[in-house]
Amino acid sequence: MRILITGGAGFIGSAVVRHLIANTRADVANLDKLTYAGNLESLTSVEDSPRYRFYQADIVDAEALDGIFADFQPTHVMHLAAESHVDRSIDGPADFIATNIVGTYTLLEAARRYWSKLSSEQQSAFRFHHISTDEVYGDLEGTDDLFTETTSYAPSSPYSASKASSDHLVRAWQRTYGLPTLITNCSNNYGPYHFPEKLIPHMILNALSGQPLPVYGDGGQVRDWLYVDDHARALVTVATRGQVGETYNIGGHNEKRNLEVVETLCELLQEMAPPGSCAIAKGASTQGVVHYRDLITFVKDRPGHDVRYAIDASKIQRELDWVPEESFETGIRKTVQWYLDNPEWWQRVLSGDYRLGRLGDKSET
Ligand code: NAD
How many structural domains compose the chain? Predict the structure, then answer.
């Protein structure tokens, strides 16, 4: 297998690259623009592998994509490149429309041009796997329902609307042109190498520096959480064994209120952070803060904030025999430990120094 991964320097993409290099014999190419969310320092464990290569490119650049397809000759494309942060999509939707919609269209067309020149045997073995979110299904407020693969789309934010658009494009390219595509829609991921703007790393790092822990509204929003390595395994399972034209929901069976997640992090840090590792432990606080929980502050809710997402992941379990290995309790503990053990990674993200390494030795375009 020769797997071209877009967005491989991001949080989930880098987990997929690490998983493929460690556990398969596939050749892996990482195609990434290296936006603020792309970090080659998440890939130091694989960068010397002869089976790994990196192309710096933008998925809206058709010419660059044609060159990469011709050079790498993939058997599979796993498309993760996206603008992914809901708050940023509210402040400035333009990049979300450009990358998530126009970029997915441009990538589909490049894949189709490449695919149309393959032998019929190679054509039927080729896969284009589009990685998407459960946020396309909208809000389950006030119900006990779960999102299934046939739930109607009802996205609420510019981010989820742009991902919904890209899902529709991928489905249409399969129906109209016969490109062998697959789609997965997954719930919230968490784990190592997560960019600190997202809920869990943001809270861990704020807590460690004695900063307030801002919780939107009353913190009652419910999300399903999946450990990122479980997602990476699910994605490779679908890309290699899924049925063409099908959609698979992926989730962790871990519905939690946001406030519950933040409180869990506070408890774990209280137990796990070594004395002296943070402002609180050093007694630096002047506001009588003695427990990380005391840092929780409630802030004005995000506009259009969905109240509840919950996913039915029984199809991937039934058809492809995938189940998550981590419970929320084990996964969140591993995550906190990883942030405690790897300050050099997140300190370079917080300082912006990670961007200095963006033209690594393996850059090919
Ligand atoms: P991320 O923001 O951490 O990484 C995105 C990567 O895409 C970055 O490396 C960035 O440099 C790259 N990128 C952005 N624009 C690009 C462009 N125009 N051309 C090439 N590369 C570009 O995102 P993530 O959290 O790893 O999410 C990956 C995918 O999974 C996204 O498609 C997202 O919608 C989906 N997803 C994420 C979650 C989650 O909880 N994070 C859940 C379900 C689905």
Answer: 1
* Cα–chain center distance at 230: 12
Classify residue 15 by its DSSP letter: H
Is 343 inside a domain boundary? Answer: no
pLDDT at 361 over 80: no
Domain that holds residue 40: 2-190+226-254+307-325+353-358
Whether the CB of 82 sits within 6 Å of ligand 1: yes
Does the Cβ of 58 fall within 6 Å of ligand 1?
yes
CATH number, domain with residue 85? 3.40.50.720
Please provide the size of the chain in residues: 365
The pTM (predicted TM-score) of the whole model is 0.94
Query: ipTM of this model?
Result: 0.99
CB burial of residue 136 (10 Å; 0-12, 13-18, 19+): buried
Q: Using CA atoms, how far apart are residues 71 and 63, in angstroms rounded to an integer?
A: 12
Q: Which residues are 342's β-sheet partners?
A: none
Ligand 1 proximity of 59 Cβ (cutoff 6 Å): yes
- Going from the Cα of 82 to the center of ligand 1, the distance in angstroms, rounded, reads 4
Q: Which residue has the higher pLDDT, 232 or 139?
A: 232
